[in-house]
Amino acid sequence: MTILHVTCRCRFAGGFELDVDFTAPPGVTALFGPTGSGKSTILNIIAGLTRPQQGRVDLGDLCFIDCDRGMELPPQRRRVGYVPQEDLLFPHLSVENNLRFGMRYASERSAEFSHVVRVLGLTELLGRSPSTLSGGQRQRVALGRAVLRGPQVLLMDEPINAQDEGAKHRLIHDLCAIVAELNLLAIFVSHDQTDVRRFAERVVLLDAGRVVGSGSARTTLDAVFKTRAEGVAAPTNLVRVVNVHDEGGAWLGMLGGNHVMLPATTRPYAETVNVSFHPTDVLLAREDLAGVSVRNHWRGRVIDLVTARDRVFVHVDVGQPLWAEVTPDAKRSLGLQPGQTIFCFVKATSLRPLEMD
Fold first, then answer.
1. What CATH number did the domain enclosing 98 receive?
2. C-alpha neighbours within 13 Å on the C-beta side of residue 190
3. What is the tens place of the pLDDT at every residue in 145-185?
4. Residue 357 belongs to some domain of the structure
């Protein structure tokens, strides 16, 4: 298994200092953190566009840069495909010629042109000029160009931020398929915690140029929030609902041993659906309640409690972990403590399905 190892340090004129040490295995790793934490700088260092003052970057046995030895591999020899925030398509070339430009330095790992075009939904765009494309379409073209280079490492800076929800789901699905098919090591930058939780297998959390946590996406995001609640973005909920089916016009599914009612829709759901919702959408009670309009009553167990200023975040296991946000007074009146049985009430309209056929 080829692993990317990044250990580097550099100080910039404005005073920002990057000092990181992390590894990334094949699959999808996210760099996540607030604006200015060094995420895009790390991508530029891996790609060879920024030179660190100290450290080295290795892809298995291939050394990209070693500052101590004065060794540096030029960008075109790094077997890296890069999709920056600004897609940087050539305005004078058609979509097809932009894509084929990525094949000029293609390696033996390069995917078939027609296959990449089909997977990324670019067939109808080949003859068009970049100036006629939407932001989301331009991102897909930039991604296709990077993949057609035949990289071993795929770097993506906010690769799906210009997509609407339907296009975002399709692109995430396509990205995962390409990464798996070509056995790529993919690293992407995102400010969206939900995208990190649904797309990345691993996450490297950054703050002020330092790594503050790394590991599997869900557990690392939750663990760092528990230990650094005041300095980390509040968690979001992403759960997987299975066995989704239409029952008399209502869409129902299962979450652990709990029944789930999904928002009404005229389109069919997939059998398995990722659902996002905010901790403030979760109401807690010590007992199940009858005669209320909220349709989702999920029995769970309190895992942990995290206090952040005037809020208390309650980590609950309902078959999958979720977060609820309550006031300190609600925490006291409910007597919340780890191990306690608790009921979570969530309106169907508060659930945001992320995957639909």
1. 3.40.50.300
2. 24
3. 888 888 889 998 886 665 666 666 667 777 777 788 778 89
4. no
